[in-house]
Each structure stands twice: as C-alpha cells, then as structure tokens.
Protein 1
Amino acid sequence: MMVRIFIILMALVMTATLSLAQQGPLRIEITEGVIEPLPFATPNFVAENGSSVEMGAQLARVVAADLQNTGLFREIPATAYISNVTDFGSVIQYPDWKAINAQALVTGAVNVSGNNLTVKFRLYDIFSGAELGNGLQFQGTTEGWRRMAHKVADAVYSRVTGEAGYFDSRVVFVSETGPKNKRQKRLAVMDYDGAGLKYLTDSRSLVLAPRFSPTGDRVLYTSYETGFPRIYVLDVGSVQRRVLESGEGSISFAPRFSPNGQTVVYSQATGSNTDIYTMDIASGRSTRLTSAPSIETAPSYSPDGNSIVFESDRSGAQQLYIMSANGGEAKRISFGQGRYGTPVWSPRGDLVAFTKQSKGRFHIGVMRVDGSEERLLTASFLDEGPTWSPNGRVIMFHRETQGADGRSTLYSVDITGRNLRPVRTPEGGSDPSWSPLQK
Amino acid sequence: MNTGQIISAVGHAILIGWMVFGGIFRTEQLPIEATEVSVISGEAYAALMAAQDSPTSQNEVAQPAQPVADNEVVDVPASETLPEQETPDSAPAPFADDAPDVSELIPLPDAEVSDAAPVLPTPEPEVAVEAPETSETPVPQASVRVAPEAVTAPDPEARRDPVEQDAVEPAEVGETVVEPQEATAPEEAATEIVTEAEQPAAAPETSLRPPPRRATRPAVQTAETLEPAAEPVAQEQSGFPAVEDALAEALGQVTETPRAPSGPPLSAGEKDALRIAVQDCWNVGSLSSLALETTVVVAVSLTQDGKPIVSSIRQVGSEGGTSASANQAFETAKRAIIRCGTRGFQLPSDKYNQWKDIEMTFNPERMRIK
C-alpha cells in the first residue's frame, strides 16, 4: 500500500517537473516603447471631374493639418512619395509607402457638382497591408467643405488612436484689441483651428467668460453692458440673446451650463460674500449651493452632472473643492503650494484642469478628481482659463505676455504636456470655450 | 518508520522538488533605472530663457498654412490689422450657422488589396522624411521622440536606424574586401516627456496679478503637500506564466499539445536583443489612454531568417481596458513586430526551434507615466 502511494506521488512529481521544463513558445515581455508621431501620407484627393481638382488638394491639406496639429501624427511630404494615388479604386502599392516609412495612408476622392460636394476616403495600415475600417463617403455643400475635411480627419484619428476626434468642433472666445489699459473685447466664434471666425457681439461693452452649451447652439457669457456684470444666454445662429436675471442687488458671473443644458451654475456676489448658485433656465428659479463666508466661484459640472468642482479660499488660499450638484459638504482636492483656480472637469470625467499660481508663475495643469497625479503642463507669465477638447485629450487656454502692450493669445496643449502651440486668431484672444463635436 | 513518517518524508520530497524545479528560487533580473541629469552652461540657460516666450521650440510647431482659396480661412496677421468681419460699434448681424451639411455616412465596398511587390526604383536613402528635426532654439532634454534611452541629435547625413553604425567606403586597396555601407544612427530621443512647466525658464519673482483677496486669512490647516500619487497596481500576470500552463497541462486541462522546442535555449542576452529590437518600433504615442492601460499578448511565428509571418500574428490574450482598447493595443503591437522584423530579427539560426514561435507580452504600464 505504502509503495503504491509512493509511486503515485512520484509520478505526480515527475509529471509536474516535465511540464515545467517544457516551455512552449518563447515568451518575452515588452515594457518599454517609444512615443513619437506616427508617420502618415495624405496625397491630394482624387478629382472625379475637372472642377474638383483644387478642392481635392484643399481637402487633403486640411485633413493633414488636423492630424499633424495633434502632435500624434507626422505628415510625410509629397516630395518623398514613390508612387501616387491617381485613382481612388486603384490597388495600393504597399511597398512604395513602406519604403518611405509611411505607417498610415489616407486616400480620398472628391466630386464637385454645382453646389454639391461628395467626399470619399479610405485609410490603410501600410505595414499590416490592409485597410483600417471601411471607406466612408460624405455629402454636403461646397460651403461646408472644411467641415467635411474635419469629419474625415476625425474618422482617421479615431481609427488610429481608438478615441474620438475633436476636429469638427468650434471655439467661442473673447477677441481682444488695443493695449491693456484700453482693451476692447467682444465675443467671437471660430472653428477649432482658427478658421471661419465670426463675431457675436460688438466691442462697446466688456464681455467675459463665454461658455458653450452641451449642444453647441448657445453661449453663456458675462457682460458689463449695464455697468455691472450680468449673465446672458446667446443663440449662436441667430445672435439673439437674453439676460438671465439673478437676485436684486447682486452681481452674477462665471456661468456654466449643466451637462443637460437646462441648468446654469454660476457665482453670485452679494455684499462681500460670493457663493455658488444654480438657475433653471426655463423657469428662472435659482438655488443657492454654498453659504460659507468665503469666496466660492468658477463652478464646473462633472460630465454626469452629479458633482461640481469649484475654487474657494475658505482655507485661506484659493484651492479646489468638489461637492454634490445639490450642494452640501465639499471635499478639498488640491493640496499643493500656491493658488489653484478656474477648475474645469474633463469630458471623460477622470481629470480636472486648472490654473495654478505658484512662485510668481502661472501654470495650466491637470489632476485626477481625487487630487492625485497633479501635473503642470505649462509655465509662463500668465496662463489662464483652460477648456477641454470634446474628447478630453487637448486643453486650450490663453497666455498673456508681460508689459503694457502685452498680447493675449490662445494656446493648446496635449494633456501629456506635449505639443504646446498657439491657436491662430486674427486678434488677441482670451477665455476660450470648446464646443462639443458638431453633429 | 511508521506510516506518518513516510507520508511526511514523501510530502517534503514533493515540496522540495517543486521548489527546485518550479522556479521558486529563480530570480528575475530587475531593470536598472537611471535618471540622467545634465548640467547646462550659463549661456545655454540664457538661451533657454530667451526662448521662453518663443513658439519656435520643438514642441511649439508653427501652424501650417491654410488653403488660400477658402473664403472662410482667416490668415494670421502679424500686425493688428483688423479682419474684414469686423463691425465695431455695431451689433453683429445674424448669420446662418454651418448647419448640418454632412450627410449620412455611406460605407464603401472593400478596396482591392495587393501585396505584390511592384518594380521599385532604388529608394533614395536621403528622402526628406528621414531628415532630422532641428530647431534654432534647442531645448535641452526635450525631444519629439521619447524612448527608453536618451539619444543626442544624430549626424544629419546618417540614415535613421535603431542600430548605429559608421559609414564604410569601398576599399580601393588591400586584401580585405569590405562591403560599403551607409552610416546609420538612431533618431534623437529623450527618456521622458518634458512639459513646459518642467523646463527652467525666466520666471518673474513676483506676479503683476492682484494679491489674494483675503490674504489675511488664517493659515491653511491642511498639510500643503501633494497627496502621493497612487501607486499603479501591478498588472497581474497570472494568466501568462509557464507555471500555470504546466499545471493546467498536468491536470489535463490542455487539449492542444504544444510543440516542444528542441536545441539549446536562448541566452538572456539573445532574448534582450529581441526585446530591444521590438521595443524600438513599439510606438505608443498615438494610443488612447485606455489602450495604455491594456496589456496584450501577441503570438507570432518567424521564418528561419527571423522575419515575422504576418498572417501568424494574432492576439492570444489581454488584460485591462476594453475589447476595443485591446484591439487598438494589438494593432500597435502588430505594427511594431512587422516594422522591426522587416529585415529579420537577429536570432541564432541554430536555435530556430526555440524562437520560431514567440509570445510577446506588450505591457504599457511604464509608458503611461512617461
């Protein structure tokens, strides 16, 4: 009996030992890689008729600019091409594109017929030798050609990165002219890349802090038209506006829409105290959310609408706090040295962007909603007013240079801190607010 | 010897055998992390300060020109010239918003795909895309490329290649025949992303901004230190180790009998060389944040000359993220294997049976914190 048990146990040991010795395929673990822009090629879109040639080139240039401006892609110049795409349906010569190290290829075709425009595109993964997703076709008018180019770029971005794009979006901001002591300000709206600029107000009265609605059709802003700040809601298409009445004898500012677009959260100063309120846009009924003797301002909703992040000096210096959307006890999330302000919740819900003033410099930074993993992305004489791209990947803000003639300029930066770049505006710009992706 | 002692002896024998052969005492060589510190001169620091407000650094690429034919394009004037849209001192007229002018997306049929190699002209090695990226205002420790090891700006004449080698001219005289070759050098790279806030700059001592509105308030009661960032949770690798595979097999849970490689195993150095070859092409820069939280295991078979068989590349496992992020991570890993394997991985041919089938685990955990 004992011998039998011993044999069985030894057999088990031998089996396990032999199994361990047999290793199957070679296994290695890769934990280090590189971070660099992905090389891509975008030949001019193929013209399907004679009147489409110029449009084909313009579309390709806007698509390429969109992708390149993200900092995640690097366009390969056309002068390096070995073969070209002359027919949208032709077979792709992968070796030609591999030879110039293109990893992605965007091909397109365009057809202009009167005022109608049709754009097709395909995306190829060169080293896999296969199409990445199906080809798509867009139809519209020639006036909207830039939007169609942005749509193509959004689709390409999404397929390569796995997250939504942000190119077919707009930015409302305060356009500024003149020296600092005599600066004229007015609201303007433009495509995210600075094209298609239109003014929404004149420069007779001071305007501040425009904020897009979740649907992108309305804008909240603060105007000193009557001599003291009041909140207005403006329809972007018709440029019609109306004032949101707040309490008598109070000053209202820093408004922002709730995620459902039906409520506005804002700051209201009464006497020396400033607190956070909400207002139902339809009924005009307001609700007070904070009642501390300190200054609470710059509220911003979480994407689910359940929480609000705001700045307060209740601890003695400006810090960031989060409370329920219905008010109540707030939890402090910023603990670093310096002062924190203008918090904005990411559309993804995982991060809060903020302005930080420390040691005489201003920074735009991000932190997780629990206050951890704070990271400063910029540093300058004055950086302020962050706003998130619709996909939560990029932050736009304004930077002001020193001196009486200092100019305020819009900038954008990736949340990794890479790809800091100015945004083109014809005049100075401040207080940007990014719209959601257009439908 | 009684029964209890026998059972105890056998049990101990099993335990000892298990520990010896099961790799309990085997140790993995931990990666050595080193932080590079560079000392900059006063002149370099002055140049850095001068560049602070300049958008010409490597990360501040100028906006590309927009098509001039577009009526809506707004050029960036250097002066304060006002654009045509300006209507000062008068309210703006309503305008028709760019209402939905994009139609429903219509899927197109699949394109014909051909892998047949055309007759290629000899590619010029000095194509424009290979040109090194240069900047008139160099920013120390910052680079467009982030790689495991920092690389200084390469010789502009050298072709970009992970392997650095000197140019060799054909020998005119002498007995030894030397094949001519181009000089190659790896792309310039930094070891981590350097944000503007992390670079030294000309910071004013005091701000022109108004002081805090309530500067006389009592001191902050809460500790003014950053909460430590949560330590990333170590990726559980229990699904991958050979131990579990062997156990499963011993318990009869494996239906497919894996091919047992024969011949001498690869040395640690040979494995490292393969790992380095792949990681040089593993570009996670365009991955979504969710895909950066996804570990994928990719299987690939190699030909005898070390080239990956593209059709054999498949995802055999993933951990973290979603199926979409796993797919994204797999595509990036697949691209890395194909790109860096184009010329064949440098592996010992006499050990082909050891490396003809490989499972590569791509774990981006370290890349998330670059």
Protein 2
Amino acid sequence: MTRYLSRRLLLSLITLWLLATIVFVITNVLPSDVGRTILGPFAPQESVDAMNQRLGTDRALIVQYADMLRRLVTLDFGQSFVSQQDVLPQILGAVGRSAKLAGLALLITIPISIVAGLYAGRRRDSKRDRAIVLLGVTSSSIPEFITGTILVVVVGVQLKLLPVLATPPANADILTQVRYLLMPATAMAIVYFGYIARMTRSGTIDVLQSDYTRTATMKGLTTSQTMRRHVLRNALIPTVAVIAVQIGYLFGGIIAVEKIFNYNGMGATMLFAAQHKDLPMLTAGVIVIGIVYMLATLGSDLITAWMNPRIRLDA
Amino acid sequence: MDYLKLDSVRKSTTPLQLDVVEAYARGKLSRRAFIQRATILGLSGAAISTVIIACGGSSSSSAPASAAASAGASAGASASAAASAGAAGGTIRVACQRPGGPLDPVAMVDLASYGITAQSFEFLCTLAPNASDIAPGLAEKWSSNDALTVWTFNLRQGVTWHDGTPFTAKDVVATMERLVTAGNSGLKGVIDKGSTVATDDNTVTFTLLGANGNFPYLVSVFNAQTLITPEAYVSGTTLDKVPAGTGAWKLDSYDIASGAKFSRNDKWWGGQTLLDGSEFIFFDDTGSMVTAYQGGSVDALVQFDVLTGAPLFDDPNFTVVETPTTNHRQIWMRCDKGQFVDKRVRQALALTFDRPALIEQLFKGKAIVANDHVIAPFYPYFSDTVTQRVQDIDKAKALLADAGVTNLKATLNYGQLSEIPDLAVLLQSQAAQAGITLTPAGMDNGAFYGAQWCPAAPADPPCSGAAELGIVDYGHRATPDVFLNSAFKSKGVWNSSQYSSAPFDDAFKAFQSAVGVDAQKAACANIEQILNDDVPVGIPYFYNYLSGNAKTFTGVYTCALGQMFLSAASKVA
C-alpha cells in the first residue's frame, strides 16, 4: 500500500507539473503585454512598465517559468492580474463554494441513483427496469442549463419557492445555504442520476450473472443476504469510479449552471480568468482542479480496493 | 411677460448668462434647454425660477435642476432633496453588469465601473434628480470669464472623506492632474498639466486650453472619470483596494466575481440617507438580471435592454424608467487606410442602413433615428438643416461604382454587448443589398476595446491600431463635447476611425468657443454637415436608456452613463 501511494503521489506531482507547464505555454504562446491588459489601453506607458516590473512579467519567459514552478511548490500563486489580490484565498473561496454545490448535488443524486440502479438491475427487463433506464437516459440527455432554466422559471419565478440566485447571504446558516443551492444542485443531480443509475444497474446485472452469485444462491442464502454480502460491493465498483470522475468534473464547475444561478464557483471564476487573461488565477484554478481530480481518483482506487480484496494495489 | 421680474435678473447676470435669458424670453430656447444652459453658466436656481415665472411659466415642476442648485447646500444628490415618504432602514439589491476590472476611477472604461465608483466618490457637478441635467455636487457654484476660458469652482465646505480628513481644493487639483496624465477622459485637449489651480482651500480655477462653454459638464457625472479622489491617490490606486470617498456610501466589500456592498456614510454632507446600505450584484447578461428580479432576488436594475427586459414593461410592481439619451453606436470606418479611405465608400455603407427597421427590430421603437453625427435632436443647439440620410441602395451602388469599388468585403468587428451582435447581423444583411459583404466578428466586450477599437499600440496617434471597420458603444453625454473631442477631433483619444479633418477641428473649436445660443447652433449646423458628409462613423440611432426598480422602493434615479443614485432612495412605507 505504501509503495502504491508513493507511486501515485509521484505520478500526481508529474501531472501537476505538466498541467502548470501547459497552462504557462498556452498563455504565453502569443505575445501580450500583461501590464497593458490590466491597466487598459489608456494607461500611460510608464504605469504599464511599472506594473510589469511589479508583477515580474517583464522578465525572460524562462525566468518567469522557473519562478512560477518555485512558487507553486509553496502554493504561492501570486496576485490576480484583474483583482490585484492574492489568488489563493480567491481560489479557495471558489473551491469552497463549488464544494458545497457539488457536495449537495452528489448528496442528492448518489443515494437515489444507486438505489434505482440496484432496483432496476435486480428486475432486469421488467417494466420498472425499463422505466428507470428510460428516466436515466432522458435525464442525462437534457443538459444542465435546460433543467436549470426550467427550474428557475417554474420553481423560482412562477412559484417563488426557492431563490433564483444561488449565492446565500453572508453568514447564512446551513439550512439557508442549502435552500439557496437546492435548485442548481438539483439541476446537476438530474443529469448525474442517469449516469450513476445506469452504471449501477449494469454492474448489478453483471454480478447477478456471475458464478459466485449463483453459488451463493445455491448454497441457500436469501436474496437480501446475497445482495448485501456479494452483489452490492462488487456491483458498485464501476459506479465508484464513475462517481470519482464526476466529483472532479463537478468541482471544476458546471459553468452553465453557475451562470444561470449567478453563482461564483470554480467554473465562473475560471471563465472570468480566461476572458481577462488572468494567468495566475487560471494557473491556480487548473492546478486546484487537477488536485481535486487526483484526490478523487485516488479515493476511488482505495475504496475499490477495500470493496474488492482481489484488487492488489501493489500489483 | 413680467418685465419687472425679468429685469431684476437681467441686472445681476453676466453677458453670457444674459444671452441665455434673452434667448429664452424670445422663445429661442425650450424651458428645459434654458434650464440646462443656465445651469452650465452658473445662473442661480432662484434666478432661473424667476426668469421662468417672468416668462409665464411655472418653476416648481419644470426646474428640478435649478431647484437643487438654488438650495446650495442641498444639491441634486442630497438625501433631503428627494427624501420621499419612505421608511428608514433596509438595503436595496441592485443588479448591474460585472465591472471590467479593478475599480480604477481614472482608468475605467466600462459603465459598470462608473456605477460602482460613483457610489463612494462624487463629482464637482452631480446629476440632477431629473436625470438629465447637472446640479451642484462637490462644487456649490461655478462661473466663467466672458471668454469661457477660465472657470472658477467654489467647493462645498465641511465635506470630509470617509476617514474623516477634510476635502479640499488640493484633492481636486490632484485628481485633475491624474486625469490629464492618464488621458482617459473627455478632458484631453481641454485642460493640461498645471491648468487646475487651488486658489484657496475651497476654490479651484481651471484655465482651459481653449474656450469651452460646456466645461461644467466635463467635470460632472457625464464625464465619468472625473470623480474627485483623494490627493493621496496615485495612478493605479483603486477604490476596492483603498476604499475612500466623500459620498453617501462607504464601500464595505468588493468581489469582482460576485458584487459590492456599501453601507451608509453617517457623516455625508447631503444628510442621512434612509437606506442602511446597498448591495450591487454583478451579472454577465441582462436576461439573468431580469430573472433575478422576477424571482425576488434583486430590487433594481441599473440597465436593461428592451428585448430581454420585455417582461418588466408589463410588470405592475416594477417602475420602468425610460430616458431619451445620446446613447448610440458608432460604426467606425478607417479614414486613413484600407477600403474606406474614399468617403464615397463610407457614404455608401451608411446609405444601406435601414434606420427605422433597426430601431423597430432592436429597440421596439424605443430609440430615435440618427443622422451619422453626434448632435442629438434634443441638444438645445441641434440644427435641423442637414437632410436625414435614409436607406438608398441604388445611390449606395452608384457611389461604390464612382469610387471604383467592386465586391467590397470587410470584417465588421464588435464586442458582445447588449444589442450590438444583432445590429451587426442586421447591418450585414442590409449592406448585402448594395453588394457589400460584411463578415461580423464578435468577441468578448472587455477584450474588444483593447483588441479592435483602440489598441494601446501604436500609441501615437491614439487608436491608430484600430480595426478597419467596427461597432463601438458610446454612453450618454449631456453635451456632445466628449464625443466630438475624443472620437472625431484629429488625434482624439478614442478616434478609432482615424478621422482627421481641419474643417471639422475648426468647427469644433468654434462650437466650444461659441458664446450664446445662436452661435452654438450655427457651429453645430456646421459640425453636423461635416460629419454627415465625411461619415467617419455611421450612427443609425440614439436609443433610450432603460432602468428601473421594484415599486417597493422609491427615490431611485439613474444616469444614462450607468450610475444609479441611491442617496434619496428608501423603502416605500
């Protein structure tokens, strides 16, 4: 296990380095004047020069690259070109908001979709199975921005049951925050219901057809015992992998949902940074999302190993 | 006509003021134009009211700006001036566009930044509650010499910055020096370094580079960068990093990604505001703002467009404020190089505009036709002597043929802002009728200004790196000076068409130095004729500015440059 974790950590560091390098290369491939971008077209040249000197963007690219790597090691992302404030607190704030939204979406969708997938898998080809499959295909076919818009119009504007903006007031209690996030989280949960339920159903069917399940049934275990002891663990292994990938995706921010609900999560933050050529913010965002992806997949591997002892992490 | 009353004013006026009074008395000026001109020239509110009454009018409802001016200590923005029968307390949530960057009051170029900075900072001349004219702000009164080259502003006394330090003439001088250095305002070419002098702590004198009868407008809300900032500010200091101001609201927090929060300045010179605070929520599109209002998440919209804001017109709980303005779009064409050097080509493109159709399709009629110049019909010095250009495809084709141009193909650059993408598509289809192939090329509006409209390099002349053809937005100005000075004067700071015309420069100079209404009208007639004929830019329309608020609030008023004033706002009791 230790060897496995060490290897994964090393791979993660290499991946992060590659990510940072790619972002640096892409954002510097075209000649641009960072100081001018920040201060605008009418700023006097001396102010632009001073700004470039202050930011260090007047130095050779190789020096800037080395400096960026050095600062990344200490998670010093520098200052945002746009807000001219430290990047790290802003990124962490956005990550925190995305975590709340993604967490609530997963909290809604995981139990419902797993139960639905198991139920459908056990009753393969029944009317209820087909209904769940159809529901899953439909829900994952409708983009988040469609369901989000419908929710806004119906639940927010017409019925006025929930706020149409997702950002809760400052210092809001947990219930208030949930109330504000419920609509965007639901819009996201609807899409992921389809993916997770179908994956669970498929895993369940596979496991139910396996030799060890037949053996368990033949040796006299009840259906619920078989499901609990043999089917559930094995059927959920691919589901866990899917959820892990979705966690990274959700943290990365569903830009459309964040836009519809005017929510300042990672998606909106990254989009804004890209539009304004805010390199430090963009780099930090990519690195943070990369870290989230890696942690999620690592967690997925560990859970998978725990669920299925046949999988040897050290292999 | 009550000559006795009129004479009492005549005796106390300067020659310039007398000219305006006489023009009004002889029916040459409308009441509104009279109030506007008289306010610029520093005629007191009491005198303005007296003239209106003497000429047979009622001053009470017709002279809001002057009423504010006459109050002296209570200017247009004062809490008491419009303190309606509202309840004390509460916070108003305002939906506005997301600012383009840090809140740099000198370098800002977008309406959203104008609106946020104007909550804390103030102008020498602020917006009158009628939302059209200027009224005393940090300057209590002003006057000029007869040649209109030296303007003296008497500053309001007892004003303090939010940190308690007194506001003085030194702050004004420092602000003007920064503005001159930056070159990002309508003051370029009007004043220079050293033009602004503090005569004493409460008096500032501007010695202009040339005569200018509209100068107070250039240090007013209508020249958004002229917010007075502390002497301690330096180039690049931003409001969000160094919160300050003399205004009614103190900036508590600012997050470009989400919004800004303000709380009441208890020591504001205008009196105590009824609201406890305000919250500006940033959006990237109007549709989301409208939805947020409909869902009860915001109370007011700084601006919305007629198409996405359509539901608001039918909402019985929403007050729509529709203001005729000089807001317009300029379709610039490079006059110095490229395919539009020949003015017949530029005229041809302008002749393809179906202006009434554009207005109907883009604004549902809430705009007026423009004639390829910036002198809007409601300016008091507008001249109707220039024939309105209308769509004439045959003539456009003939002009192109005369110019020897066939298969004209050009990229029409624009920023993704409001109706502009739709305008680009409509212009494309209209131009195609004359055989002109336009290819609309849109981009993020924040990037557009620096990439297509007015790139920083080459810096001399300004905007000489602009694209050959494009559409750019211009906000409302109560006088055309900023438009003329920045977009059309040779080497103007926003002259993206690189228009350089000695006759125009002379005509503009004549307009600025014109003394009296007749002279200004004559100068404007010349300007209109030159611009209409040369067509450095096509201007199809002036559109109405739309803003509004829930009827649960009152006393909200908005400048068509994006500043929403809340000092007199309150919740309806």
